[in-house]
Amino acid sequence: MNGDPSVLGEAARRRTFAIISHPDAGKTTLTEKFLLYAGALQRAGSVQARDGARSATSDWMEMEQTRGISITSAVLQFPYRGCVINLLDTPGHRDFSEDTYRVLTAVDAAVMVLDSSKGIESQTLKLFEVCRARGLPIITFLNKLDRPGRSPLELIDEIEERLILQPTPVTWPVGEPGDFRGVIDRRTDEFIRFTRTARGATMAGQDVLTATEAAAQLGRTWEAARGDCDLLDATGQTLDVKTFLAGDSTPVFAGSAITNFGVGQLLDAVVDLVPSPSPPFDRDGVPRPLETPCSGFVFKMQANMDPSHRDRIAFVRLTTGRFERGMTLTRAANGKAFSTKYATTVFGAERDTVEEAFPGDVVGLINARDLRIGDTLYAEQPVVFPALPTFDPEVFASARPRDTGRFKQFRSGLAQLDEEGVVQVLRDPDTGDREPTLAAVGALQFEVFAHRLEHEFGAAVELGGSPYVVARRTDAATAAKLRRLTGIRVLQRSDASLVALFESKYRMERLIADNPDFMLPANASGFAGS
Ligand code: G4P
Predict the structure, then answer these.
(1) Is the pTM above the cut of 0.70?
(2) Sign of torsion, CA 79 81 83 87?
(3) How far, in Å, from the CA of 35 to the mean position of ligand 1?
């Protein structure tokens, strides 16, 4: 048989997305409220006091500890309205790393959460750019409208101007800042009035009024919101699914995750708007039909984060076919068979085995020592998916073994962790592995590197500072010129490609402006060679 037609129905029920936001915009709160609204959680607890020091676990693991619920550290799966929702975690705060970006290669859409008093913040912007480079559709949630913030119209303008993305509000807030009453649903012109429940632990009360009823009851408050909507109508900023799917417009929803206002409407939008998985393209740009035998790619590796499970898990986004636990998949990179006996959905400290999964789902393969980030896995019909992007590093460190007698172990750990994508290892051809430079997008990657080198490879490592602040890919001709200049270093990746490191961003920009022939391409939106 060439394909399994029942897979099409299962794939059509999948909604696979991630939330992108700046720390503190409300991603964790919203995630929890999604669970509440989907019926996966009876009561939402309040965020426990935080000591500010986050560990190398995801926000969800923290939620799991503080709220006593089971949530996977990589993906949260729950049913809602006949669909299977897969919400992938984008680690933030201290644990921001290349993994955070790579998650966005495994989703079909993103929900961008903005704190209404702050608008678009730096981390949101970075993540947005990765979404844009992939053409991912984005739904926007204006959060924290329960408290005084910026005017929603101003926020809409900011989205349009800074992201070059057409905002198309679907719901619009009603009420003075700090006195958020509900939303206008612009599709029906109805007023959805919310009432608070104690600490937002249960769903907000909700009643629906016609525009006439709302005008009679709310008077000027209603008129003000209606006036905003008239402006939006006049500028044609209304929901347009086609441009949304193309990544050119963003449906906007108003709300407050803490009080649950607008959360139900947003979750419904995930079902109604997030596209179900579509046939993936292989390396040559040929689409592989969804019903062809199982295939997927590894987008994240997690190792030894939990001391009671000293192994390595590869997270695989399934792209086609039916996955059944125990089936044998082939690793495209070397043609070797890989048993999926230990397939799992990873629930923090606990693990549930997964028996069956479909396109859009994520499975965790345990004991995946031979797998690498970006690997394609397939059953029966060979395929290779495009390489995952690499990202311009933003933080740098030097590394050397504390005990020179452990150099051999240091060296093999270095090679392994580089290959796994834990950090990027950059070497000076003259000194090689003696004191390589580590590069990453988040400093936590260095901590994971040092921890694993010591505990898995037995080589304690000393991390040192690095004067460099920005890196660009380059070629041999430009490298030869750059090597003559001070404040710049050209190093090599393990695949022999060259990377130029600069001590000042300004200096780099000047150099590029003065030397248009230099090959120092910006890693457009974090994507190299994609
Ligand atoms: P994050 O995962 O994006 O980092 O954000 P998180 O959900 O942890 O929320 C960050 C803070 O913002 C929390 O406050 C949370 O309660 C608050 N918050 C989230 N959504 C809303 C909202 O809709 N309205 C208001 N007013 N606040 C919101 P905290 O100070 O860290 O904790 P707590 O003291 O409030 O419990």
Answers:
(1) yes
(2) negative
(3) 16
